[in-house]
Amino acid sequence: MTLSIRPIDPVSRPFFGGEASGIDITQPLTSEQASEIERGMDEFGVMVFHDQHFTDEAQMTFSRNFGELELATNNLRDSKEQRLGAHIADISNLDANNNVLARENRRRLFSLGTRLWHSDSSFKVVPAKYSLLSARIIPSKGGNTEFADMRAAYDALDEETKGQCEGLVCEHSQLFSRAQIGFGDFTDEERRQFAPVHQRLIRRHPSTGRKSLYLASHAGMIVGWPIPEARAFLRDLNEYATQRQFVYSHQWKQFDLVVWDNQATMHRSRPFDATQVRDMHRTTVTGSRSTMAEAV
Ligand code: OGA
Ligand code: MN
Questions:
Q1: Which of 94, 138, 244, 269 has its CA 20 to 30 A from that of 108?
Q2: Sign (positive/negative) of CA torsion 231, 168, 241, 110?
Q3: What kind of fold does domain 4-288 have according to CATH?
Q4: Which residues form ligand 1's pocket by a CB distance below 6 Å?
Q5: Where do the structural domains in the chain lie, given as residue ranges?
Q6: Mind listing the pLDDT tens digit for each residue in 43-58?
Q7: How confident is the model at residue 161 (pLDDT cuts 50, 70, 90)?
Q8: pLDDT above 70 for 232
Q9: Whose CA is nearest to atom 6 of ligand 1?
């Protein structure tokens, strides 16, 4: 069998969210297969692969077809007890002994920031290209991940708002996103580490050339704007860009691998019963440059 990709929802979102079949991506790919997947990503922004029984090693090998991996240093001070290797982000509610984290656990509370719409690593100078999330253990219900198409949202903006957004630069920091959920338990060292970085509000995709809105809960300022005006403007844009017509909600099956293009989408996690295990492993492919270096 060979790789085929079909739109997940051909009626309402024919160009966003593709389901792949006919390929075992836990095995090494040919360069032709890797290019086909990259073309699928350019078209659909999000791709779902079912029944991929990944080890961390195989997930890293698959991910490296698309670029270099980000280091997954789990930014918080009590994370010396890393469960997973340096290139695997631990998107679980488990501690180093595989016990479910206590309600008040700091890493758990920090991770609740993923419930806000975001694009991975927009707070880094060179932000993420693809994120690849592998569902190892899922709760019995809930815990969907939702994806919003920032290309479609940009295209559908009225000309006046496009004009307002053109040329704007935002400051992104995890301090801003966590402040939105009332998490401020940072050390001075972490505050320094999370210093804001600049990203364009409208970006152009390095491969397709399409424009999109580059939004994230990490964006808390617009350069040259008063803060309340920037926050109000960004809030409106986020509300607009995450309307249901732009959103695909992924209901996980165990051993799904979902790949999303952070350069063209936002995503967020949805709630689930916190006493159940949800164990997801993420690899992240780094982008090629800051959006500040992109011609728009
Ligand atoms: C991520 C993320 C959402 C989820 O892995 O980057 O935001 O549903 N995950 O776990
Ligand atoms: Mn994320």
A1: 244
A2: negative
A3: Double-stranded beta-helix (3.60.130)
A4: 91, 114, 120, 131, 133, 145, 267, 269, 280, 282
A5: 4-288
A6: 999 999 999 999 999 9
A7: very high
A8: yes
A9: 120
